[in-house]
Design brief:
Length: 602
């Protein structure tokens, strides 16, 4: 079908009673059918048009994931408008920038707290006062003048739909231009202001279809998704709107990001999408519980994971699984592995996927021990989230697969990954110069450095702009080295520094669980650096082992263990959990300088 909206209408017509969306309220899960889903998008469109919203107008949504978010998002597109999202954890400066940049006619906020955050940036009030219409997804709209609740908007739209001569859903659908810019997806950007990438409905529909084709996705409402990655990010938009509607999946919305660990086990999705950092955190959580388990349970779990490792290695090597291992795996799965999967909220999962950045090889292999295969992909906002993806059953740990079906990819002379195809965005909103630069020569310049391995799979070597040059003239891509160091279960994040210096050094953070244990032993929580001798020795041994596999100029000579993880709140991480290296280096400049002050090297 032409667009995602056409597909939604067809779904509602063919199986109107199929479960389509679920949300949690007052401790209980409630649901919408496919018909209710489609009707609410239509009602919202009627309401917005009655308020003067026209084709080409822009709506901004500043809220956590919810059915309201999706209904408004799609209603705006149904009217020929453009919908932009703002990350829930955005800093006030970025919120103000997006509102200014879009000139939004509508601003929808989750509740009073979100509205207050939007107002908190210097100079925000005049900008917000220019917005013609304010909406809240909360039932309380009394926190500002002229705020209408989502429920009230739907009710007014419902009444409009009952009037004679009202514009039909089919009329709206007929007037849609699949190739026009529809969604404005702001890049989280590791430097500078975010850029608004225009994604068309054709971009989203095409990419959804190609993911379906490559991963052979099942169809039907018995397939469940859990929506918790921000809906303003292209990965979640592709996941729960593009694929969700195209494949008619039942999507459950996480009430807030902090509720993931509680609500994921309640939903038990059959398909699960995460970013690499969250897959790492889930792995860290399991490993932490195993370290704390009673000796007998710990031995049983370690045995089960070792059996899972042997079976996975044989299968992905294309070898026959030893009959003894096969029998042991069935027992290990029944006694341990299935229970771990269910406790993680993945007891019914048949497909796991990772997006936004390459998944470290050691993380991919760890999940295989549980009987899972995480399908990886490489993409970015400008490619509707997809350039390459891995295929089921192929050992691609550490790689991001082959080009999306129906698209092209090439490696430039300097190692940059280039691509072209129907998944490529329409351009940056109000920024023709940046658009021309990223689409130079008719190819999307991804900014990623990569190479194709002996299996024909793309391996990412880092970001082009992050390559460091030592004072000796040697070029170092930090990402592959950082991922090797992070293989230690103790280590959470690694930021290699050393541009213009004589050797690379590393800023290291510990897992949240390890930090928690350490803080229980020390009185001060204000320290910036951890000097615990046991932890320092463990990290030093990990780096020493990694250094053996590196060229001399790549070897880490000094490291510092920080007392806190890098955070979005401090501006050190993007909302999609990517490091902002320039910010990190600025925040820890004194510590970095101390690693080059002439003290003894590692």
């Amino acid at each position: 079908m032409t667009t995602i909206l056409h597909r939604l209408a067809h779904w509602a017509e063919e199986t109107p009673d199929a479960l389509a969306q679920s949300y949690k309220i007052q401790g209980a899960w409630k649901s919408f059918t496919a018909k209710e889903y489609c009707d609410r998008v239509y009602y919202m469109a009627l309401f917005l048009e009655s308020k003067g919203f026209k084709p080409g107008d822009i709506s901004c949504i500043f809220a956590s994931n919810s059915y309201q978010w999706v209904h408004l998002d799609l209603a705006v597109i149904l009217l020929g408008g453009r919908s932009a999202g703002i990350y829930p954890n955005s800093i006030p400066k970025d919120i103000l920038y997006i509102l200014n940049h879009t000139g939004a006619k509508i601003l929808a906020v989750q509740n009073q707290d979100y509205y207050a955050k939007a107002l908190s940036a210097e100079g925000a009030l005049p900008v917000i006062e220019k917005i013609q219409f304010l909406m809240t997804f909360d039932q309380n709209g009394a926190f500002a003048p002229h705020v209408l609740t989502y429920d009230a908007a739907i009710e007014q739209g419902r009444k409009l739909a009952a009037q004679p001569g009202v514009k039909s859903l089919e009329t709206y659908l007929t007037s849609l231009d699949p190739d026009a810019g529809a969604f404005i997806v702001y890049t989280s950007g590791t430097t500078g202001n975010p850029k608004g990438a225009l994604i068309s409905q054709d971009n989203l529909a095409f990419t959804s279809d190609q993911v379906d084709r490559a991963w052979r996705l099942p169809t039907g409402a018995d397939q469940k998704l859990f929506s918790f990655l921000p809906l303003c990010h292209i990965a979640e938009k592709l996941h729960s709107i593009g694929v969700g509607i195209s494949k008619r999946y039942h999507v459950s919305f996480c009430t807030k990001f902090d509720s993931i660990t509680v609500e994921l086990p309640e939903v038990q999705p059959t398909l699960m999408l995460c970013v690499p950092r969250l897959w790492e955190k889930m792995m860290e959580g399991v490993n932490h519980k195993l370290r704390k388990a009673p000796p007998s349970k710990k031995r049983l779990a370690l045995w089960a994971l070792e059996v899972g490792k042997r079976v996975a290695e044989a299968r992905f090597a294309g070898k026959f699984v030893n009959p003894v291992d096969r029998i042991q795996f069935e027992l290990a799965d029944r006694l341990v592995l299935s229970k771990i999967r269910r406790a993680m909220g993945l007891g019914q999962a048949t497909l796991l996927a990772s997006g936004a950045a390459a998944l470290p090889a050691h993380v991919s292999r760890w999940y295989r021990r549980l009987g899972f295969e995480i399908l990886d992909c490489l993409g970015q906002t400008e490619t509707t989230g997809m350039i390459c993806l891995t295929e089921p059953g192929i050992d691609s740990a550490g790689a991001v697969g082959k080009p999306l079906p129906g698209t092209e990819m090439m490696i430039a002379e300097d190692g940059e990954v280039l691509t072209r195809g129907r998944q490529i965005f329409k351009g940056y909103y109000k920024d023709d110069a940046a658009t021309a630069q990223v689409l130079e020569g008719g190819w999307l310049h991804s900014g990623d450095l990569g190479e194709v391995n002996e299996k024909g799979l793309l391996v990412v070597r880092g970001r082009k702009k992050e390559v460091m040059k030592t004072s000796g003239g040697k070029m170092i891509a930090p990402l592959p080295i950082e991922e090797l160091i992070k293989a230690s279960p103790l280590i959470s994040q690694v930021c290699i520094v050393g541009d213009g210096r004589k050797y690379p050094s590393a800023l290291i953070t510990l897992s949240e669980l390890a930090l928690g244990e350490l803080r229980e032993k020390v009185s001060s929580r204000e320290q910036r650096v951890i000097k615990d001798p046991t932890i320092t020795a463990t990290v030093k041994a990990q780096i020493a082992a990694i250094n053996k596999s590196l060229a001399g100029y790549e070897q880490i000579k000094r490291f510092t263990i920080l007392a806190n993880e890098f955070s979005v709140e401090e501006g050190e991480m993007t909302p999609t959990q990517k490091m902002k290296r320039t910010v990190i280096e600025k925040h820890y400049q004194d510590i970095i300088d101390s690693m080059y002050s002439g003290a003894a090297e590692l």
